[in-house]
Amino acid sequence: MTGVGRRFGFTADGRRVELDREPLSDADFHDREARLDQGMALAGPAEPWARDLLQVARAVYLVDKRYDRRTEDGWSRTVDLSVEVAEPERWGPAQLADLSTLLATLTSDTWHVRVAGGAAYRQWLDYEERASEVALFSGGLDSTSYAAQAAVRAHAGTLLLMGYDDNIRARQQEVRRCLDRIRNRPIKLVQIGQRVLSGPGKLERSTRTRGLLYLATAVAAASAHRVGQVKAPENGQLAINPPLTPNRLAGLSTRSVHPWTLELTNRLIRGLGGAVEVVNPLLSCTKGEVCGQALDAGLSPEDLARTVSCGDPSSARYSHQGQFNCGHCYPCLVRRSGLLAAVGIDGTDYRLDLARTDMRTRVAQHLRALARWLATDFGFRDLVADMPFPSSTPIPAVLPMLHRGRRELAAMVEQVVPESSPLRRNWNPRVAG
Known about the structure:
By secondary structure, the chain is α/β, with parallel strands linked by helices. The chain contains 15 helices and 9 strands. The strands form 2 sheets. A 5-stranded parallel sheet has the order 7-6-5-8-9, with helices on both faces. A 4-stranded parallel sheet has the order 2-1-3-4. The longest helix is centred in the C-terminal third of the chain and has 22 residues, at 395-416. Helix content is 38%, strand content 11%. Helix 3 (93-107) runs antiparallel to helix 8 (259-271).
């Protein structure tokens, strides 16, 4: 690794920081800490351990965006971070080691995090009615499908959907309104902003710790509502997200809800004394199966077409312009395969028409990588090439799902890409079953 790394200190006001650390604070976010609590629809104060975990996650995300990896070797960074929390005594060596391992897993960087006392969180006097279930809600196919399945449960209490809105706040609300036709229980959508204000230098384009911030916010809300689980719905294909090529290993393949990531997250929560567990209710499902479950719950194909799956940083999800789904990034390709498998047609308004795309161009790089991946054998060793699995999620339990997903993806390629395309010439997908 090149470079000596950078040192940061996160405090409430950014002033009580050691001289050799770059000061960071709540003021570096567009949505300040006070408004964050107010917007979380809390049923009472979150427990101190949960609020401290959210404080650490906010500091980590801020550093992740302010530390442009292009200033180092373009690949990995070394971070030394100090965070002000309310109960530093809970953060012993084991907890800090689990946190460093979790951050390294998410970012492929080296993190040295320590905590110090002094944080005081505002307590609100007016609180919401207590929810009975907390689930993440991005406005994508997976979270919408799970929300639909949860919405039809009668006499289940309020469903609290936690969303980070990016630039799709209105679209999330539109997708949320689709649930009103089928719901048998109250639903509350809370949208939290996460935008980092510009500082010196350019912001890092990747958002590898966004998922942790997303989870920590929901965990804090679950703690306040005294709910024992946070549902983090993600189809098994993208949750495990096996890299399509050696160039996509580790942090270059998003693993925010990979079984190992959730194991580390839950281990950290337990070590802090918390009683909230993060679970993925869709781990055993392919994208097509998730879409089928949404239809079974009562949503229409038109409802599903409104959702947003895109992972391309240049898409409208991040730029406010044009179509929300680019149509060519890997999450969009998986989206295409799921909708085609469940509905037979894909009514999404994509920015790119794959059938008319030159397969030699840069925008087709993900599709080319997918085609090569589907043309090779896939098995046990490929799953553990760059990420371990916890004992609670044995590989034999997820491998059949990944093979079903590969069949959906191969069928999508054959349906969307013309036979005359160079990508289809001599292509022989090796998909089981």
